[in-house]
Design a protein that fits this description.
655 residues, mainly alpha, Hypothetical protein af1432, 32 helices, disordered C terminus
Length: 655
């Protein structure tokens, strides 16, 4: 990287001759006389000779010879004379001998091309400003001259890299390799020279996209910036090896700024080429190095085709790489899933292991505490398993374990969790069961295994299980609910074994009043009401419920919405609840602010949104949408308790 100060403070930085500076100062004064321009020019014989030469060249276009500067200045005009004086001073700076001569020559050729291109555009769209546009184009790359003169060795490396690049722009490479580019250098130099602000805008925006150039507020500034941007693309098209990239930008700018199609652009390029030849003679540039338009177009088309092919190859490679990455990610994800499953699955049976079951049980207990819902555990033990192993061998025993596990897992709901507890024991976690429902599930498992057909050497081997289950409703203060559920389910399973095996026994650790409330709330749920009145089958309702989200709104909030309680009463219940650590509903009943029927209804609403369930059943075609409103009205009329008869804060009945 280069310290920009090395450029700004270099003694090799280009400077303007005195005559050019004085002419610039005169051009800023609208009252300056032609005679003042003539007297300033005469102080510099070299500039005088060059302006006279320009007056008699094809570039100026005068028919008769001009022999004196006194006649040349009025004929050319003060603007043209000032422009020529600046141009000649740059021409002198841009000539160098030695190893850098080619780079200086290429730079100056590019400047002349830009100036001529800008002049052609001005002649068509801004007549009278041709000299200003010519000078703006000529000066637009002045930063390159500054870098060639101040950091020649470093800049030569950039130019060599540029020659080897198919599409990377010069100023981009400069920034990457040096930390500063010729646009920044040009702006700094123009500021020091006190050149017009419009010229500085042209330098700043010459490589910008169309939409950024169009944001320039001043119309006159925008017109000149547009011309310089197109001229820069013309110079790249005529003078550099990146003809394809230059043509693409040239076509875009020409279409956006002037509405030129490809044919119209080609006509302007031909005009520009003629003007370049005239300017080249005046400014000592070998224009023969610029190929014919047809040759340039042929090279540009070939380069664009190669770039398109290369882009396609790169794109294809990127797609292939992306596919490989995606495949690797999928394989990695699959492997991670396999490892995760290995960590939570029993190796032999494929069902969950005890560790995962224990974690799931504690999570479900926490959820049940929040939602005041029930939880069930079913313990399963294969009857006479040791005898099966001893009689038919351990391989057969393993087969029995796998088949029993698969059958039980298939019989349970997807929301339930089955795990291998150890040896021939299995344990299942059942979410939100009733006592009756848990008993039905346990019996279904027992019957399914009993009917299972297992063969050994073509002979049927009977296999049965002993089942024990326990239902609970975790309380806020319960710390050992998981242990109690498992212990009681295990004890119930041994009840089945002691009574002859192949049986089901159920236990409950729910408080009797709480169990009564749970039964009442279940009966008040819309799903149960629909099944009870034969408006829907239990199988259909159960499937739909899996996709319905329970509201889980706090009972105190629901009670206020239904006018069962006011805010003061809710606060009183909450204060009492802190002391007894019981559920809100039980506390409200004990202090006489709610009755059991009201709490049961609130619990039913908390666990199930009747409206949501109704619409879901209609969407599945289980219930006719036209009769749903009537069903909802009948349901609420039958099961919703009246708010009358509730207790006030003092425990007195309201009238």
């Amino acid at each position: 990287m280069i310290d920009p100060q090395k450029i700004w403070s270099s003694s090799s930085l280009p400077t303007l001759p005195t005559v050019a500076i004085e002419l610039l100062e005169l051009s800023k004064d609208p009252d300056s006389e032609v005679s003042e321009y003539i007297s300033r020019i005469k102080t510099d014989p070299a500039t005088t000779a060059k302006i006279l030469k320009a007056s008699n060249s094809s570039f100026a276009g005068f028919k008769n010879p001009i022999t004196s500067i006194d006649r040349a200045v009025p004929l050319l005009g003060t603007t043209v004379v000032t422009s020529l004086a600046l141009s000649f001073s740059l021409s002198d700076s841009a000539h160098s001998a030695g190893t850098m001569a080619t780079h200086f020559r290429n730079y100056w050729k590019s400047c002349v091309v830009k100036g001529a291109a800008c002049e052609v555009i001005a002649r068509e769209f801004h007549p009278g400003l041709e000299s200003d546009f010519f000078l703006a184009g000529l000066l637009s790359s002045i930063g390159q001259l500054a870098m060639l003169k101040t950091i020649p060795k470093e800049y030569e490396a950039v130019l060599e890299r540029f020659k080897a690049s198919d599409s990377k722009l010069l100023y981009v490479l400069e920034t990457e390799m040096l930390g500063v580019n010729h646009i920044e250098a040009g702006l700094n130099l123009m500021t020091n020279w006190k050149l017009p602000p419009t010229f500085r805008l042209c330098v700043r925006h010459q490589a910008d996209p169309v939409d950024e150039i169009d944001l320039i507020e001043s119309l006159s500034d925008r017109d000149m910036v547009r011309a310089v941007a197109i001229a820069a693309a013309v110079a790249d098209y005529f003078c550099t090896h990146q003809k394809g990239v230059a043509l693409q930008r040239l076509q875009l700018l020409a279409s956006s700024f002037y509405g030129w199609n490809d044919s119209e652009l080609e006509k302007r390029l031909s005009t520009m080429k003629d003007r370049i030849d005239q300017a080249a003679e005046l400014f000592e540039v070998d224009s023969s190095e610029i190929e014919s338009l047809s040759d340039i177009m042929s090279q540009a088309s070939e380069q664009l085709a190669m770039l398109a092919v290369r882009a396609h190859v790169v794109s294809t490679q990127a797609v292939v790489r992306q596919q490989m990455v995606e495949k690797e990610n999928q394989e990695l994800e699959q492997r991670n899933q396999e490892l995760t499953q290995q960590a939570v699955r029993d190796v032999l049976t494929g069902i969950y292991n005890r560790k995962f079951f224990d974690e799931s049980l504690h999570k479900e207990i926490a959820r049940a505490v929040r939602s005041a819902s029930t939880i069930g555990v079913i313990f399963i033990d294969i009857d006479n398993f040791k005898k099966l192993n001893d009689t038919y061998g351990h391989q057969f025993g393993d087969e029995v374990l796998k088949k029993v596990a698969a059958l039980v897992d298939e019989t349970l709901r997807t929301t339930d969790v089955l795990g291998r507890y150890g040896g021939e024991e299995f344990v299942a976690l059942i979410t939100q069961p009733t006592t009756k429902g848990l008993s039905i599930v346990a019996e279904r498992l027992r019957a399914a295994v009993e009917q299972m057909h297992i063969l050994f050497n073509g002979r049927h081997v009977p296999v049965t299980i002993s089942v024990g289950a326990c239902i609970g409703m975790p309380q806020r203060s319960s710390e050992n609910t998981a242990e109690r559920l498992v212990t009681e389910a295990d004890a119930a399973m041994y009840d089945s074994k002691r009574n002859g095996r192949n049986q089901v026994h159920i236990r409950s650790i729910i408080d009797p009043q709480q169990e009564r409330l749970t039964q009442q709330s279940n009966q008040k749920r819309f799903s149960r009401w629909l099944v009870r009145h034969e408006h829907a089958r239990i199988e259909d309702v159960s499937k739909v419920l899996l996709h319905c989200q329970a509201p889980h709104e706090r009972i105190g909030v629901l009670a206020q919405k239904l006018s069962y309680l006011n805010a003061n009463q809710v606060d009183r219940i909450l204060e009492t609840q802190k002391q007894n650590n019981e559920r809100f509903g039980m506390t409200a009943i004990k202090i006489g602010l709610l009755n059991e029927e009201q709490v049961a209804w609130l619990l039913a609403m908390q666990l199930e949104d009747a409206t949501q369930l109704g619409h879901a059943l209609v969407a599945k075609g289980i219930i006719n949408g036209e009769i749903l409103p009537n069903l909802m009205n009948i349901y609420k009329h039958e099961v919703e308790p009246s708010p009358h008869g509730k207790k006030d804060a003092a425990g007195q009945s309201k009238t």
